[in-house]
Amino acid sequence: MSPETPMPNASLNSPAAISPATETAYLHGEIPLTRAMGMEVAAWDGRTVTLTAPLAPNQNHSDTAFGGAISSLGIMAGYCLVHLLLEERRISNRLLIQKSSIDYLRPVDADMTATACLPEEAVLAEFLDLLLRKRRARLALHTQVLCRRMLAATHTGLYVAMLY
Amino acid sequence: MSPETPMPNASLNSPAAISPATETAYLHGEIPLTRAMGMEVAAWDGRTVTLTAPLAPNQNHSDTAFGGAISSLGIMAGYCLVHLLLEERRISNRLLIQKSSIDYLRPVDADMTATACLPEEAVLAEFLDLLLRKRRARLALHTQVLCRRMLAATHTGLYVAMLY
To answer: In sequence order, what DSSP letters do the residues of chain A get, joined into one string?
Structure first.
């Protein structure tokens, strides 16, 4: 599928799977800070993406994770979700973040994970339809950051996708 | 002045000046990601703090600054403002961020600066008074991120200070 042949049920087309290792290599190659943070894409099943980051390179003065690192991991989980969604459907894209908001619920004192899930099918179909028709669409995505299996932060990002 | 001798007009006491270089060294020593980002405290006059970061280590796939790096710079400007305020008054403190929100207004395609100013005197006096009486107080701080002298992002952070 290409931008020239929009289909209303774009999200249902069988995508070409991208592995977590491939997406991690992309991040490390394109965004140096993800390398400095030791960020990795740990899992991606076509609906949910999970990123991980170790504590050591991301710690602060209190030996817990720096708020900016937690925020960066939350931002990247949403970014990767849209990126994987579009790349797997071979929709050439450029992605920006327009707004980011995070609530820190408890200190992160060990390695952390961030998980973002695609929204419900109707929202996703509208996003893809708008992107293919107008060449630009926005999507709000929520990310949960966990540490020791407990919720440590909730992030909401508003992402803008453009056909490229 | 120490936590043991609270004074209602704490913010008006003559502080022991901390230089931008000293604060930069503190950040680099305590928070490795600030070093990886090339973050520096460029100016501090007792009311306003300005941080800088070069584009290169903070860029993304579009050769503009990664949203997480801009967010981290915004978070750190507010953090440094409270840290300098309290340290100069010799109020031993532990600082956390509780909430962070950022609006990205335009792409950052060169070095960036983040500037945060102390709130009005009455708000500041209430914060210091509460901190010294209750050993814990919150302060909302706004940061402006500029690139090429144009506003590129606005950040709001809710910081929690605790006597330590």
So the answer is: --TTS--TTGGGSPP----HHHHHHHHHHH-HHHHHTT-EEEEE-SSEEEEEE-SGGGB-TTSSB-HHHHHHHHHHHHHHHHHHHHHHTT--EEEEEEEEEEEE-S---S-EEEEEE---HHHHHHHHHHHHHHSEEEEEEEEEEEETTEEEEEEEEEEEEEE-
Best mutation site among B26, B27, B63, B72 for testing chain A: the one with the most A CBs within 10 Å? B72
CATH of B20-163, one of 3.40.50.1760, 3.30.300.20, 3.20.20.30, 3.10.129.10: 3.10.129.10
Whether A103 shows a pLDDT value over 70: the answer reads: yes
Q: What is the pTM of this model?
A: 0.91
Residue A100, min C-alpha distance to chain B (Å): 5
The pLDDT of residue B14: 55
> CA-to-CA distance for A142 and B99, rounded, in angstroms?
15
pLDDT value at position B16? Answer: 81
Q: Which residues of A touch B156 (CB under 8 A)?
A: none
- Which chain A positions have a beta carbon within 8 Å of B98's beta carbon? 103-104
State how far the Cα of A111 lies from the Cα of B105, in Å rounded to an integer: 32
* DSSP-based three-state secondary structure for B20: helix
Q: Where are the domains of chain A?
A: 20-163
Percent of the residues in chain A that have a pLDDT greater than 70, as a whole number:
91
The 10s digit of each residue's pLDDT in A118-156 is: 999 999 999 999 999 999 999 999 999 999 999 999 999
Say yes or no for a CB contact (<8 Å) between B99 and A96: no
pLDDT tens per residue across span A11-22: 445 578 999 999
Dist. CA A108–CA A59, nearest whole Å: 9
Report which residue type is found at B125. Answer: A
pLDDT reading at A94 higher than 50: yes
